[in-house]
Write a sequence for this structure.
């Protein structure tokens, strides 16, 4: 399934998930997992984990070549690295992971040291990235379309897309599947009868009717392996049973973008120094005009969306502390005062090892990338933990006012 | 060691600091119409809206998307090309840039004329015909083959400036050429 802005919703996700699972086990083995028991150590554990995992993913990328992870040309390894990179920007997801391990520990002790610990550890890693990918894609969808979207809504899109395919598969099985086709269509189409017109018309998610999805889910208990997604006891999609309009609208969203992106519309992911300069110039101009104009009209600030899919408790933070306009520009000046290896460590953390904005003399001649954190620490004459502290303090100072953790 | 923070790095860091932060419960706080009106200058943001925009990484990402979508496609600056194997024998009458948008025609048998021709279907054709920038065709050694502006038909013509024939000359000078807009 493809939706505007999303990158993690296609079949290639299976490869990304497996790669992250495999490499994470090895990376976590190199860390002191006991740190999950102390929330004060979660941040340092994330640093250790990231520093152990990134080289493994890079090595996998070199070994595995560029196995595509989506139809935009991102490789499985690129997508895995992208998620790892986002993980550090979303400390809540890492805390949830660490807390989940700690909760298991409370039940059964340090299972990660046990013989069968890998399976559970891998499951927790899967949960971490499954949640993170939907969060990332929901945000990207919103940035690309201007429409509100939650991770749960992404999950619902995915379920509906899967359901369409399943309905298509049942249709394709006619006349062998005549009984189930009849149940889905809501009229009798006996195997001995004429080829049902609906089957011929069902060519994409655009032509899959919402009531078929509801009936398909309903019939799954009888024809499939268990209750369908709209009819499970979890109630996650239960509201959709009476929501054919909503299902129809979401199917139309999927189909519309599929039609649009079939001719190669994948350029939404431009992240380079040039585009950064361009839109930040626009932001500076818009900010300056706002300050100069002192527009007295009432604010046109939208209310938070009422999301019927939301199950994230305590989500909203009503009034983030507003800083003075463009406070971050001043903050960046403070970063300039730091020693070069500290600034490079900041770049390594925020932009990754190979951003195209880096000057040649920052790059290691062997790798073409920034030195590793260990190498930077050696260059600065600091220990790795001290460099991390200076780096994180510099980032905290450079964050916009009111956004400091 | 470069001790000044390079401008590009600074911009990328600023971008990352603005967009790469988790704000719990973040949502699109400004409508597209409000952002577009601020971008095109027709209605400046109020102080409250500006503060809300800066406090919402998600809305900033939407702003980024709209700002970049509003910008014209990057202007054409440069199209390189090379002599094909098939061009090496016999007389050369035509060269095409790698992007396919420019042709060089060689007319005559010595003296020669060289004609630069822009494909009308090039995405930047309308802009170049309107702005009439000074164009320069260079050989693989950087020497000027032709300097001029396009006429209304998208062509520019000059006398071949070298003693040797076009095929011989390009072969002896790196077998490449380029069409470039002279710096403004």
């Amino acid at each position: 399934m493809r939706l505007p802005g999303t990158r993690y919703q296609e079949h290639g996700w299976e490869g990304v998930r497996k790669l992250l699972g495999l490499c994470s086990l090895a990376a976590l083995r190199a860390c002191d997992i006991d740190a999950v028991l102390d929330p004060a150590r979660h941040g340092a554990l994330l640093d250790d984990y990231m520093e152990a995992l990134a080289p493994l993913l890079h090595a996998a990328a070199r070994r595995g070549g560029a196995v595509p992870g989506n139809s935009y040309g991102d490789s499985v390894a690129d997508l895995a690295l992208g998620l790892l990179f986002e993980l550090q920007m979303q400390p809540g997801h890492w805390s949830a992971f660490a807390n989940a391990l700690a909760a298991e520990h409370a039940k059964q002790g340090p299972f990660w040291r046990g013989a069968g610990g890998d399976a559970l550890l891998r499951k927790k890693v899967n949960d971490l990235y499954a949640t993170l990918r939907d969060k990332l894609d929901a945000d990207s969808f919103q940035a690309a379309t201007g429409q509100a979207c939650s991770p749960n809504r992404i999950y619902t899109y995915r379920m509906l897309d899967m359901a369409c395919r399943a309905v298509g598969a049942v249709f394709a099985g006619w006349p062998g599947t005549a009984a189930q086709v009849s149940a889905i269509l809501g009229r009798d189409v006996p195997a001995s009868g004429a080829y049902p017109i609906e089957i011929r018309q069902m060519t994409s998610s655009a032509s899959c009717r919402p009531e078929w999805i509801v009936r398909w889910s309903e019939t799954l208990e009888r024809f499939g392996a268990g209750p369908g997604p709209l009819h499970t006891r979890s109630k996650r999609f239960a509201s959709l049973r009476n929501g054919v309009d909503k299902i129809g609208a979401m199917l139309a969203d999927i189909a519309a973008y599929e039609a649009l992106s079939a001719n190669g519309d994948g350029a939404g992911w431009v992240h380079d120094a040039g585009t950064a300069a361009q839109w930040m110039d626009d932001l500076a101009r818009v900010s300056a005009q706002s300050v100069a104009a002192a527009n007295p009209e009432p604010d046109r600030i939208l209310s938070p969306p009422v999301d019927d899919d939301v199950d994230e408790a305590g989500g909203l933070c009503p009034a983030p502390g507003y800083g003075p306009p463009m406070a971050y520009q001043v903050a960046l000046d403070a970063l300039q005062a730091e020693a070069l290896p500290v600034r490079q460590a900041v770049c390594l953390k925020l932009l990754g090892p190979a951003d195209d904005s880096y000057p040649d003399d920052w790059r290691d001649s062997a790798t073409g990338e920034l030195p590793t954190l260990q190498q930077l620490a050696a260059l600065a004459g600091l220990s790795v933990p001290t460099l991390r502290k200076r780096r994180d303090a510099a980032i905290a100072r450079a964050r916009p006012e009111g956004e400091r953790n | 060691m470069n001790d000044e923070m390079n401008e590009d790095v600074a911009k990328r860091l600023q971008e990352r600091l603005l967009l790469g932060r988790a704000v719990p419960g973040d949502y699109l706080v400004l409508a597209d119409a409000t952002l577009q009106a601020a971008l095109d200058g027709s209605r400046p943001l109020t102080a409250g809206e500006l503060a809300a925009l800066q406090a919402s990484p998600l809305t900033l990402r939407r702003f980024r998307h709209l700002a970049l979508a509003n910008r014209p496609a990057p202007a054409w600056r440069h199209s390189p090309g090379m002599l094909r194997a098939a061009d090496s024998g016999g007389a050369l009458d035509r060269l095409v840039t790698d992007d396919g948008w420019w042709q060089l025609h060689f007319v005559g048998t010595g003296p020669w004329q060289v004609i630069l021709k822009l494909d009308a279907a090039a995405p930047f054709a309308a802009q170049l015909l309107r702005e009439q920038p000074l164009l320069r065709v260079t050989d693989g050694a950087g020497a000027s083959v032709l300097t001029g502006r396009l006429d209304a038909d998208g062509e520019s013509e000059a006398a071949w400036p070298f003693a040797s024939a076009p095929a011989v000359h390009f072969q002896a000078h790196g077998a490449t050429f380029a069409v470039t807009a002279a710096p403004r």
Notes: The mean pLDDT of chain B is 86. The helical segments of chain B are 7-19, 32-39, 47-54, 57-70, 125-131, 166-172. DSSP finds six helices and eight strands in chain B. Chain B has two domains: 7-70, 78-181.
